[in-house]
Design goal:
The protein is mainly α. The protein is built from 22 helices and two strands.
């Protein structure tokens, strides 16, 4: 890049108005995300909402650049995934009754370490997992479609915003007025949560997901829930509770194995080939994981951030050198897993990645239970942020926003989000007390409760090891073992509902072909409408969360 052009690019995409709007939005979105994650046990992606909000507010300042709006929304949304990483792990400490053993200073250390590692990892893997891969990133694609359609005066914009309005109205009827259940068509199958999730967003994710990924995702669900849980218990091999422990362990193993496969196939082997083939150095230098490290300054900044995260874990959180090194190394592996998961499914099971590393650390160290939660929190924040950043990078690739400007926006929003997340958690704890967190309490804290119950160890070590080995082998053979693992681990209704979205896509493509509609035109229309459906529920979900925050704090 020509150095003389940098100030102009900076002014055009990272303006004072954009930073101000982004920071104010970041505070609001992050606060609502903490509340939503604790209260509802889920965290809607805010990206579509922030994209539209940023564009509207910037236009009020007379600015119409889509790239500037994109960078602004990056700042606004970055803190939400930091909030999710904390909310999905740290409350487990309070659920176990160890409230006095954690302070706000330590929570801040967890958030800072996770944020630093998440930002470093995404800087390293962006080129490989956005530009060189065929990952869909349905959330990032939907955000790009929203921004592009905002300047359309014709049918594209009408389709997108019409679908957005209908999905939003559906969400209001379901969640605000309570006129529809969240799950329909439930069947009483022992050990299997068989139902259809009443969520337009879930169907849209299936519509946008790749057909191949969805096949493996569904195959994993059938294997885990109907093969091991239902089939195994029906045949008397084991009881339902034991089978569920085996399935969760196998699913975690498959996902961890996928991450190990990435390290072997996409990192270790290319590096070995590069070292053994010096004549290829000039042609491979700009490819792979480290393509964005273009100067010693870039490398130095990332090295300092990594060292800072390790020092925070080692000294600030008193985890010790060995555990801190493991956290740094596995944060890279799990960030890659997060990028794959978000890219293929639009789902970022950040607490699962944190749980995997927690269990690994517990197996070789004598770290206390509270500090095991810190380990999970750091990884969950890093993976949550990685999923958000990579999805945003996909948006930028589609509309032409420079990655460096987006990464700087992520830095601003993520660090602001660390402070806001901790403040909100501390405020909720002070206002409602530790007894307000748990399955039957005011804040159900579903994910944190899972982490709390798993602190004692892996339910089935053999199943985890089998999943680990199989996941690594399958990935190296080109089979998406991450999606297989997600299907095994996630509740069956979630996978089944997403698969219905893929079936709708299949039927849509067949009908369009039968009517003689040009393939590219039909695909564009389908993606735009699905993006609108995805965005509509996301926007209303965030608005409902904002209203819940205000009502909860005032009540």
């Amino acid at each position: 890049m020509n150095h003389a052009s940098k100030p102009t690019a900076l002014r055009g995409q990272l303006s004072g108005a954009g930073i101000l709007i982004g920071c104010i939005g970041c505070v609001i979105i992050t606060a609502s995300s903490v509340y939503t994650a604790l209260k509802m046990g889920s965290l809607p992606w805010p990206t579509i909402f922030t994209s539209i909000t940023a564009l509207v507010l910037l236009r009020a300042f007379g600015r119409t650049s889509l790239n500037e709006a994109n960078v602004t929304q990056v700042i606004m949304s970055a803190g939400s995934m930091v909030a999710g990483g904390l909310a999905f792990t740290i409350p487990g400490i309070w659920i176990l009754g160890m409230t006095e053993e954690v302070s706000w200073i330590e929570m801040l250390g967890v958030a800072l370490a996770g944020t630093l590692l998440g930002l470093v990892c995404t800087a390293l893997i962006r080129h490989r997992f956005v530009e060189e891969s065929d990952l869909e990133y349905p959330i990032g694609t939907a955000a790009a479609e929203t921004l592009l359609a905002s300047r359309e005066r014709g049918r594209t914009g009408q389709r997108l915003f019409g679908a957005m309005g209908l999905a939003g109205l559906w969400c209001v009827v379901r969640d605000v007025f309570g006129l529809m259940p969240s799950l329909v068509c439930s069947l009483p199958i022992p050990g299997v949560a068989f139902a259809i999730q009443n969520s337009p967003m879930r169907l849209a994710v299936g519509f946008l997901a790749g057909r191949r990924s969805m096949i493996y995702w569904m195959a994993g669900a059938l294997l885990g829930w109907f093969g091991l849980v239902f089939g195994g218990s029906l045949l008397g091999v084991w009881d339902v509770s034991t089978a569920q422990g085996i399935v969760s362990s196998l699913g975690m193993g498959l996902m961890m194995g996928s991450g190990a496969g990435v390290v072997v196939r996409d990192i270790a082997i290319p590096v070995f080939k590069r070292l053994s083939s010096s004549h290829e150095k000039s042609t491979t230098q700009k490819k792979g994981f480290f393509a964005d490290i273009t100067s010693r300054f870039d490398a130095g900044v990332l090295a300092l951030m990594t060292a800072a995260a390790a020092l925070i874990a080692c000294i600030w959180l008193n985890l010790g050198p060995a555990v801190s090194i493991v956290i740094v190394v596995l944060s890279f592996v799990t960030a890659v897993m997060s990028a794959q998961s978000v890219g293929q499914s639009g789902i970022d099971p950040m607490e699962i990645f944190g749980l995997i590393v927690l269990l690994f650390v517990a197996a070789f160290s004598d770290v206390s239970q509270v500090r095991l939660f810190y380990v999970a929190g750091i990884i969950a924040v890093a993976c949550g942020l990685a999923g958000d950043v990579m999805s945003d990078f996909k948006t930028g690739e589609i509309i032409g926003t420079p990655p460096r400007m987006m990464w700087i926006g992520q830095v601003i929003g993520a660090f602001l989000g660390t402070v806001v997340s901790v403040v909100v958690l501390v405020a909720l704890l002070a206002a409602y007390g530790p007894d307000a967190f748990g399955p039957d309490a005011l804040f159900v804290s579903a994910q944190a409760n899972v982490v709390a119950t798993m602190v004692s160890g892996i339910p089935s070590v053999p199943a985890f090891i089998i999943g680990l080995v199989v996941g690594m082998v399958l990935y190296c053979l080109g089979i998406p073992s991450m999606m297989l693992g997600l299907g095994v681990y996630l509740p069956f209704y979630m996978t089944f509902s997403t698969a219905l979205g893929a079936l709708i896509r299949f039927a849509y493509d067949r009908i369009a072909a039968a009517r003689g509609v040009e393939k590219d035109s039909a695909e564009e229309t389908g993606v735009v409408v699905a993006s609108g459906v995805l965005g509509g529920e996301s926007i209303v979900g965030v608005i409902i969360a904002l209203a819940s925050v205000i009502t909860g704090l005032m009540g």
